[in-house]
Amino acid sequence: MMKVLVTVKEVAEVEEDFVLDGTRIDDRFLEYDLNEWDDYAIETAVQLAEAGDDVEVVSATIGPERCEETIRMALAKGVDRGIRVWDDTLASVDLLDVNAKTEIFNAIIAEEEPDLILTGVQAHDDSFGATGVSVADAAGYEWAAVVNALDLDADAGVAHVRRELEGGVEELTDVELPAVLTIQTGINEPRYASLRGIRMAQRKEIAQQTLDDLGLDEGAVESQITLTDMYEPESESDVELFEGDADAAAASLASVLREKGVGAQ
Amino acid sequence: MDFELSPEHRMIRDTVQDFCEEEIKPIAQEVESEHRFPKEVFDQLGKLDMMGVPVSEEYGGLGGDQLMYALVTEELGRVSGGIGLSYAAHVSLGSKPIESFGTEEQKERWLTPLAQGDGMGAWALTEPGSGSDASDMDTTAVKDGDEWVLNGTKQFITNANVADSVLVKAVTDPNAGYDGISTFIIDPQNDDGFAVTTVWDKMGLNCSPTCEIALDDVRVPADRLLGEAGEGWTQTMKTLEGGRISIAALSTGLAQGAYEAAHQYAQEREQFGKPISKFDAIRDKLVDMYRKTERARLLTHNAAWRYDNGKPVTKASALAKLDASEASREVAEDAVQVLGGYGYTEDFAPQRFYRDAKLMEIGEGTSEIQHLIIGRQLGL
């Protein structure tokens, strides 16, 4: 039997038309949804479960009761059960940093002992992009980040992966299980939950756990990072229209490029 | 009293909405302009378990309630009236009567494939000479040994040319009036004598086929009779009570889609130096569109709730259908007006909603017939 743990996060998305109040966006402009990358991680896990004989997929999240619906959508797509970590201590924390998330997920990993952990590359609200690898390090698992293709050989205990690097370069590598893979968008096409899946998901378990249940205390979520300031960046845009025929326009363009330093030695 | 949807209903609505936005909205005008029934969309709806929402799980359905079915139908209407109409006809008219009135064998043979999304359903009541006076039909079914022989013409039959089964109403006892009508399950692919004689070009809803069909000595075995002989009219009344809720839901969807198109456009379009939504004339129009849409939805959900709780639903479903269909036509007309010249072009959705909405006041009982039904219910 193989166990796959998928970490998921509900993130706030801003509606198309919103109003800034200082640097705050009022709650009424926010919609909550599953983090986009996590949708691909869930699809990866569910496909593994469909291809394998005996694969259990468990999702874990840190978040308030509101995000149960998001978690249930993962259950509707084929995740077997969910774990949601929340308590008053977590509710009082302004910024849950990578270390805190690592401590929490690491405690879940110690309990669940998954063979494979899938996370999104990043969450699009705080975009740390570090939780997956940090969790691997803490749990003593192998890892591969920004995975955009996966061929799992469960019997041999090896994940053949393709990783997306900077500048269009890709890397093929093998990772030994147990491992953490951070999943990139585009690795698959996330499915729509079927309506029967949604109905069945209402009866699946989402176990709520507190820090105490996980053997952690307040110290686990104390952060060395503090939010010092928020400001709206000044944006500038500059447009220069070139008039005249092609020769004149080309000459004007050349002089502007020269001024900006393009082609300078 | 609770106006909140359950988490399950909300999740289903949101998922269907996502699907409609991503997969149907981009092709909605194209299939309409091409007058093409998008079979591929219905295949996808089948995969997502949408084709038998209010049909019991025993027969391949989802086992959902009427409210859930109304939510799904509204979301389809919000992006494509034609797809919504073919869907509602498939479920309310083509599938539900088999579940309500069929034998065990009939349900297994005819209902299960429909509910699972392996085929389209249809029903045939209207005739060239009988519309609102539906019981005054000329189609006949005569018993010949163990078989029934059907003859006649049926008009404006949604899905007939793409259907795997058609529930045909026919007179079996010409002297018995309302009690002389019966329902037969016809297999349009395999029963000899069944022909689609016309596929109508219409003002709207052109991706939903509307057909004239001819029955010329169509011979079917006794087990194609749905329920008992003579029950056809009672079945019809019962079927339409549920069907009207789905037309109300579809209408609410059309209104919602038209309202959203106008709402968005009014905030982007600038005249006299500001968005047109900032002018009282346009703002008030949008507020009224919103008001009518919300009213239609509340009446629809009320009718669905009564249906699901086993309460009398004749008045509530007729009222929802009457109000929502008129709301959809009015809201869609206003949406065209808000978009001005652009609203009259096929590059923008409001004209399509406007065309589609008009049929809502005609199909499954005209507004005039809804007034008649409600008037009777009010003791008038």
Please, could you describe this protein's structure?
The complex is a heterodimer of chains A (265) and B (380). Chain A is an alpha/beta fold. Chain A has one domain (2-221): Rossmann fold (3-Layer(aba) Sandwich), CATH 3.40.50. Chain A is built from seven helices and 13 strands. In chain A, the strands form three sheets. Chain A has a nine-stranded mixed beta sheet, with helices on both faces. In chain A, strands 2-5 form a two-stranded antiparallel ribbon. Chain A is globular. The mean pLDDT of chain A is 91. With 380 residues, chain B is an alpha+beta fold. Chain B folds into three domains: 7-120, Acyl-CoA dehydrogenase/oxidase, N-terminal domain (Butyryl-Coa Dehydrogenase, subunit A, domain 1); 123-231, Beta Barrel (Butyryl-CoA Dehydrogenase, subunit A, domain 2), CATH 2.40.110.10; 233-377, Up-down Bundle (Butyryl-CoA Dehydrogenase, subunit A, domain 3). Chain B has eleven helices and ten strands. In chain B, strands 1-4-5-8 form a four-stranded mixed beta sheet, covered by helices on one side. In chain B, helix 7 runs antiparallel to helix 10. Chain B starts with 6 loop residues before the first helix and ends with a helix. Chain A binds chain B through residues 17, 68-69, 72-73, 76, 192-199, 201-202, and chain B through 7-8, 10-12, 15-16, 18-19, 47-50, 53, 62-64, 72, 267.
